[in-house]
Amino acid sequence: PGGSETLEPLVQLKGEHLNVAKISESGKKQRKNWTLMWSILTSDQLLLYKERQQETSQKPGSKTDVVQLCGAFIEWTTEKSSRKNVFQITTNTGSEYLLQTDSYSTASKWYDAIRKTIDSSTKA
Ligand code: I3P
């Protein structure tokens, strides 16, 4: 051990564009503003970038937001948006995110992977 390589977070789902709306920050309601975000799921975080990240890139762009999944809660919602395939992530610090994509298979792939990540990082 002790190499000079940086410790990369374990990627569970590679980058993909998802529509994201942060509707609450630390329990404080935010104005809904859907933004297309480049999303990457690691073993305990959902990383959200404004710009698409190149897999070969040496210098990843700055993370626009990091959703901590330990202790978070996820559920499908039909009430919080007129859009289809919307699910909500509530963090243990009271931030709420809506995630959406028109493809049901893509949305459910992310939902299932995030739910598993919440389960495993919360138990850890
Ligand atoms: C919001 C915008 C959102 C919409 C939201 C509107 O208006 O149209 O796309 O959410 O509906 O309030 P504005 O841009 O003026 O803030 P959905 O697309 O998820 O339906 P809502 O108020 O019913 O949440």
TrEMBL record:
Parts of the chain that traverse the membrane: none
Every PH domain range: 22-119
Record's subcellular location: Cytoplasm; Membrane
UniProt name for this protein: Rho GTPase-activating protein 15
Biological source species: Dicentrarchus labrax
Part of the full-length chain shown: 82 to 205 of 492
